[in-house]
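FORM 7B: Structural annotation worksheet

SECTION A. Query
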Amino acid sequence: MTTRPEMVRREAGLNGRNGQNANIGHLVSDVTSDLSQLVRDEIQLAKAELKEKGKEAGVGAGLFGGAGTLAMYGLGVLIAAAILGLATALPAWLSALIVAAVLFAIAAVAALLGKRHVSRATPPVPQRAVGGMHEDLEALKGHQPEGKGIA
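SECTION B. Predicted structure
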């Protein structure tokens, strides 16, 4: 005669190998689901990083463009200063020369700021996301990254 607990186990599929298969199947399902979520999270991180780097590159490019425009105005003023200096011996050329020097100084500052912003945006690889993926792969392989032991 079969006892009540044995009947319950048989009905639930928990006898012998069937129970192990059900547990292994559940574990495989959980791992697959967790891995899919992990990949989605890493992709979201990569998107956020690329968006941030794109903004930095845009600001840097805008500052470079502004620097180029100011340099062109400076060149125009410098040419006007040279023309005024040669045409007359009045101090008007000195005023134009001072304006040109100020414009070139502003262009230099804008160019340095633009260079700083562009260098922050390079390389355009989402480094935190790539690093996270490497850590995840190492964890899946069963290795612990250096300095990241379980406390």
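SECTION C. Observations
The radius of gyration is 34 Å. The mean pLDDT is 77.

SECTION D. Sign-off
Analyst initials: ____
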